[in-house]
Design brief:
Helices cover about 50% and strands about 15% of the residues. It contains six helices and three strands; from the N terminus they run βαββααααα. It has helices at about 40-65, 95-115, 115-130, 140-155, 160-165, 170-174, and strands spanning about 25-35, 75-80, 85-90. A three-stranded antiparallel beta sheet has the order 1-3-2. Strand 2 and strand 3 (about 85-90) form a beta hairpin. The longest helix is centred in the first third of the chain and has 25 residues, at about 40-65.
């Protein structure tokens, strides 16, 4: 967590080199390490789903309801030996602490209560509809082949994303 100090006397020591008088915004991020290619297909699908689910939740909670951030987001990166999942938001400096608390609360709610069923179904349908656009252009086909090559390399199989997304449940995402 980034801790900012509003006095110049400590600027640059514990404030990660950010000087409040020179900047008006900060990016607050909570990051979580994942095993990367060691993830099972079920975990990969769950984290991929969670990325889309949380992006919508963060938008509603941090932008629409609380006006803390214009474009909060969640992201999932799956790389050979390490993966990374993060949630973040760009905010004005004096809102860092309240935004960090809100991010933690949102993550805690999803862990404790699971995803809200109405939002869960909307995200599920969106992901399934997104698969229909996979073959629309040469670059999307190239992306698909790259994903297939990566899946074959890391999982030793060609995943059927449609079947995987159709079978996802709130319990799998929790």
């Amino acid at each position: 967590a980034l801790k900012l100090d509003d006095s110049l006397s400590n600027a640059g020591t514990e404030s990660s080199g950010l000087f409040p008088l020179l900047a008006t915004e900060a990016h607050v991020v909570l990051g979580y390490r994942t095993p990367g290619s060691a993830l099972s297909l079920d975990d990969f699908i769950a984290l991929s789903f969670l990325e889309h689910y949380l992006s919508g939740v963060l938008y509603n909670k941090l932008r629409v309801e609380r006006a803390l951030s214009y474009s909060p987001s969640a992201a999932f990166y799956d790389i050979d030996h390490v993966g990374f999942f993060d949630v973040g938001a760009s905010v004005v400096i004096d809102k860092v602490d309240v935004t960090l608390a809100a991010l933690r609360s949102i993550i805690s709610d999803v862990i404790e209560e699971g995803p809200a069923l109405d939002r869960f179904e909307i995200v599920k349908q969106g992901l399934l509809l997104g698969l229909t656009g996979t073959y629309e252009s040469p670059d999307s086909i190239a992306d698909l082949y790259a994903a297939w090559a990566y899946s074959i390399k890391t999982q030793n199989e060609l995943p059927d994303y449609e079947t995987e997304y159709r079978s996802i449940t709130p319990e799998k995402v929790r």
